[in-house]
Amino acid sequence: MTDYLRQSAEAMAVFAQDAAAQEVMLDMAARIVAALEAGGRLLIAGNGGSAADAQHIAGEFTARLMYDRRPLSAVALTTDTSSLTAIGNDYGFVDIFSRQVLALGRPGDVFLGITTSGTSPNILRAFEVAREAGLVTVAFTGHAGVRGAPCDVTLAVPSVWTPVIQQLHITAAHIVCGLVERALCPRSS
Asked: What pTM does this model have?
């Protein structure tokens, strides 16, 4: 228990001092703001715990984060079990998110792929399809970054351990959502 808490605290301390990561989060937020201002949306996907994180993040956008405001368009591609199982059965697990990106995404939208390893085949495939379809691609990954697919903006957090990576991803998601919320829905005085 103590070792886990120490590793978590150390990674968070490194992340808090990482000026490059802060710039990446500002860039991600700016791209999401641009998409939402243009009437677009944020599409989010991940596997396992990152699937739950995708849903958590979409909920922060569509409900609220820091204060009451209008809903912001975000969709977790991990929630439609009929689509996931039909696509998985008919096309294979690697296409469970890419088919949804093609169906729901429009040029200028943002696709956020979450992959702690940076090598999740279905997330990499979704990045490829999203780029081809004109979506902006952003990633949350572990220390190694995304390997095997082009991505416009990547936030590689300072850990190699999945539970800590996921903690940092949620922290980053809250920061990015907060920046978007403040830009698009400033709190009235």
From this structure: 0.96
